[in-house]
């Protein structure tokens, strides 16, 4: 689409990043509609593709935990999934293979035998065949605990990590929590605070409230006003960097819109311009 | 004990006798240097109490008493076996010194091995026998006469006094309370039985409305019921089940040797003219019957003795007087002893006074306008425990056993010419199974039959429910009442005020057994029998005047004279009642008298009752002296620092046990602030109105039981909600025991990620629920969402479910025996049957080479787990029989596989191959299935609020708080107003505060974290003080108009899951007899169009549908029927009755109808079918 036609700069969405670290990012999105803002949130949570262990083949498991238990835990371990789409082109549902193939999956191995008194099996023990797609690591942390073994116990297994989205299972979600807020002072009166005496003394204003001007005591209620400024805080599991998750989410949205556009155009060609409206409404 | 190493908190048990078991509890967030506040920290006595006694102390105490004392007494009392044929012969059973059960098992049998191998956890009862062979005497030592099932954790159990580590090493869970038996691999609990107390006078109206005083006498030999009735026109009778008529009371008194009417009147009425007036008709009746002397009275009674009693003495002319004398001495009021004096004459005096007292009580009740005793009063109840029940059973079995031996010996000794001297010990060893079988059978079936007492009780034992840890605990504290469930009386079911602190007010089932099945409160102790000989001597020493030396006037004349009873028997009178009672109490407090002896005064009846009998419920209380609780700060310090134990405070007289009766004679303050004391001669106060506080409660929350103790803030809930939770807590899936994965139970539910609750109670920690929890802390939003949440349905977050919320494991046992048969054949295991391609057929896909499903292999419904084959013929052929060969190897086999027939995929978890006691091989397969919550699974909070999952919603559609937190569960707010479970709201608030604070909060009954403090924590963390948050819709992104109550609540997943229940069928199996579809899910049955559904269809006028449903879809059948004779049963169009083919028609009818006709015909009723053409 040709955006240069937009003359009014004010209609363009605007993003300002207010804070960022390894796992989370906070930013303010403004000049857009609530529905768009929420769609971004939803896309980030549910439709960003990542890698996660989906099939586990046990060769030996003499730990106290059952196979399914360990498999479930393995599934929830985040795997580095930056640029996953370039490396693994398909999710397992899109892929034409029978069960899994290199174009939709990655293999990981876990072979641990306990020779000491006891030891923990963590995500660091998971060895990936792939260069980049492997369990997340961080310096501060000794890995995600999978199981604990005592002397003589052994776990050896083969995992197949597949590409997927969180609509299918939450393990594919790159986001831990997505904070989303607008109108911290409740100017728009979208919510009705429950109070005993007084809203101000009873309802603490969130941190984002500092970024907005406090409404004056006698400010008239603008019933036509629409939410315009959205405060996000995206915390990821580590599978993606926070900004990657956001961009991936936007891409998902873009794809969806493109899909709609393509289909609408297809219909328009078929029936003629007038027909589209008839069909759509 | 002092040398045992200190066991620190983790993994250790508070039930272990080792007092350091849970240091973490004793200190509980308190440093040793922290100040100690008696008012706040008094509850620390509760863990101390449970440490010394354990949660199921009642069962253990009772069993220990039986096994250590009672069993010896029983053997001692019945030790002699004599022969009718050889007066010289004598066999004596002796309890060997240091005799020990379980000592002689070939190897140490552990309870867990018994469970796995379907064996009985039992020890040998070993005795010495002394007998003579001719003139020679023999002694055989350590002869086993049978096996006694051993209660887990009792003094004869291997787990006794073991540290948690040692217990774990034996394969047992350290948190397991014990107190049950293992019979043939199943865990059996002998429920506590509630009964009316024996040997006590209870005055109540009888069936006809007359006031009567009744006593159920019970001694080792006899059990009988005696009653004194105040009948029509003031006539008073004695009723007894061995007398076939009512005897005027004065005749009874005269028979008991009180011949003068004046003396009778004195014994009954004292000098009270009112009583005398009420009593005079009875006196007159006697004299009008012309009975004046003891002899006349005895003869009169003798004539009324029930015939069955006399039947045994056929041929001898009955001397009615002696008959009556014997009856009065032994049977009537059997518990009042009648001793022979130096001349060999029975001393009936105590019995006469007792009868007179019963009369006095009835008269008193009549005078007071029918104020009678309350048989539902807990003090009038006795609880019978495993030990007492086993003792009854064992005594019966032992007596029968000696009788059997006697018979066996008689058999031998009556032979005129014996070739060798008879060795009586063979008779002993030959009958060794008798006692064993009797005990095992009774415990495993629950049928308690003791002929001596005409006792026939069913359902005494139950299988220990291992659904969850609390369900097992709840079962061990359960009390079942002897009352009939069907009777619609409210009295025994109602909550009694005297249950306070003894029985849990919340924990009772709903419906049929409501109020009849009760549960013990946390600190209840049940007494065991103790010897009263010493006590009797003491009582006399303290100034009680012997009853034999007292005349009627002395008994009741003086206001200060109190009758003194010991276990229901009158000992005498005391003239300074208060001093006497205080003396005994003082002696008890300094440890000279058993701590469980109770003594109390009733002023209205002017009696002092001392009890030392077993089965009384009692509980510990802090003694208050002159307004000061004796348990003070220093004691608490000693307790917290582990210097003193609970029993030390009992010995030093700071804490004592009160039974329900003594409680009525005390003034117990609930809190220290309620303690009142008025020094003597305090001006302006009348002491009769304001009693001084005598005791102080240890902790008010102990009035609830173990199961009700799980509820946070129960004192804020509507009471039935707590009762519902008590029932539901037992169905919650969670951790069962530390050894849960080594157990092979028929059905086991386990939770994958159980949490300990954010909002705990003291009880939770005390019973170890924090270590074996059953539930998860769910973040709950109380709001309406999607409409799939009406009628208590819950909305679950799909992401939470994906991440493990409510995930559980179901384990099922499949087992079979590999038997060997009489004809030298035996069962065998076959390998998988292969198809043409050499691959095992689908049914056998899970089998390994040994014919058993392999561990870790996935199985589906229909898979064979154990491919067993059994011989077609198993009985021994008679030698030389003509048919077939007798070669066992030639007998063909048929398949008798064990098949997995449940929906859903599962995995083989374990396979056990072992042998049982009879050396039969046994194979057990444990099948595991992991389930995630699905639509229709049942959940419940801890406040009796159950609901099913109505919809599972994607995370992005869920509402979320401003920090991005989505709820795990959405609960509809309509659940609150009518249920009034305020406790749940406070739980949410405390839970939320706890989460933000990083602490667990407490919701202990009558205490716990205060709402005000919780609100403060919320405010500090930037939340609204009321627990409500602004939520944003996940669907639109708009803020929700309403504020949402949002925070963690502990949710339990209940065992009712859709997967086990869902069922539908189109075509399927039919019953053979009626050809109608089978019934029930397990048989793949049809769904019934019942009477109401039928009514609906009729109402709709859909007759064709009805016909289809009721006939064609069920059991339609074409019957050939003769239109001429109307009989059914024509054969291929030929009516055998009419001998013609002319009029045979085919009629469609239900097969059941045809069956009915045939059955009617078989009983000579001719049903004729009239046939007409359809118009």
From TrEMBL, chain A:
Gene Ontology CC terms: RNA polymerase II, core complex
Q: Where in the cell is it found?
A: Nucleus
Pfam family example for this protein? RNA_pol_A_bac
Q: Which Gene3D superfamilies match?
A: DNA-directed RNA polymerase, insert domain, RNA polymerase, RBP11-like subunit
Under the heading SMART domains, the entry gives: RPOLD (SM00662)
Q: Name one GO molecular function term.
A: DNA binding
DNA-directed RNA polymerase RpoA/D/Rpb3-type domain boundaries: 24-263
Q: Which residues form a coiled coil?
A: none
Which protein family is named in the record? Belongs to the archaeal Rpo3/eukaryotic RPB3 RNA polymerase subunit family.
Please identify the protein, giving its name as recorded.
Answer: DNA-directed RNA polymerase II subunit RPB3
The gene it comes from is RPB3
TrEMBL record, chain B:
Its annotated compartments are: Nucleus
Q: Name one Pfam family in it.
A: RNA_pol_Rpb2_4
Q: Chief location of this protein?
A: nucleus
User: Which residue ranges does the record assign to the DNA-directed RNA polymerase subunit 2 hybrid-binding domain?
Assistant: 707-1083
GO cellular component terms listed in the entry, alphabetical order: DNA-directed RNA polymerase complex; nucleus
GO terms of molecular function: DNA binding; DNA-directed RNA polymerase activity; ribonucleoside binding; zinc ion binding
Comp. bias intervals (Polar residues): 868-888
Cross-referenced PANTHER family: DNA-DIRECTED RNA POLYMERASE I SUBUNIT 2
GO biological-process terms attached to the record: termination of RNA polymerase III transcription
Protein name per the record: DNA-directed RNA polymerase subunit beta
Q: Which region ranges are annotated with the description Disordered?
A: 868-890, 1066-1085
Segments forming domain RNA polymerase beta subunit protrusion? 54-430
- Which EC number applies? 2.7.7.6
**Domain RNA polymerase Rpb2 span(s) in chain numbering:** 198-384, 462-526, 564-625, 646-700, 1085-1170
Question: How is the quaternary structure described?
Answer: Component of the RNA polymerase III (Pol III) complex consisting of 17 subunits.
Transmembrane segments in this chain: where? Answer: none
Q: Name the chemical reaction catalysed here.
A: RNA(n) + a ribonucleoside 5'-triphosphate = RNA(n+1) + diphosphate
Spell out the Gene3D superfamilies in the cross-references: 2.40.50.150, 3.90.1070.20, 3.90.1100.10, DNA-directed RNA polymerase, subunit 2, domain 6, RNA polymerase alpha subunit dimerisation domain, RNA polymerase Rpb2, domain 2
Q: Which UniProt keywords apply?
A: DNA-directed RNA polymerase, Metal-binding, Nucleotidyltransferase, Nucleus, Transcription, Transferase, Zinc, Zinc-finger
Q: Which CDD domains match?
A: RNA_pol_B_RPB2
Q: Can you tell which superkingdom this protein's organism belongs to? A: Eukaryota
Q: What does this protein do?
A: DNA-dependent RNA polymerase catalyzes the transcription of DNA into RNA using the four ribonucleoside triphosphates as substrates. Second largest core component of RNA polymerase III which synthesizes small RNAs, such as 5S rRNA and tRNAs. Proposed to contribute to the polymerase catalytic activity and forms the polymerase active center together with the largest subunit. Pol III is composed of mobile elements and RPC2 is part of the core element with the central large cleft and probably a clamp element that moves to open and close the cleft.
Q: Which family does it belong to?
A: Belongs to the RNA polymerase beta chain family.
